[in-house]
Amino acid sequence: MDEIREQAQEVFHDVFGDTDLVLRDDMTADDVDGWDSTAHINLIVALEKHFGVKFAMAEISRMKDEDQNVGGLLQLIAKKLGRSG
Fold this sequence. Notes:
Layout: H1 2-16, H2 37-51, H3 57-62, H4 70-80
Helix pairs in contact: 1-2
């Protein structure tokens, strides 16, 4: 999971233009400057491209739920890659 976190952090750096950004499991869009709906789409596309995965529309919709965070996103990526999170 550490490798996924490190790679995802690089994607976040690219999408948000902030190399000081450090991912935390409890982090949400509210914690990241510039994480609006457009940035969210850009982030999803960038993560799909980087990891070679596809998110279903239902998964993308659930990412906006109140109880969702970066930790859940990383676990979803790990699941799609067939790795235990």
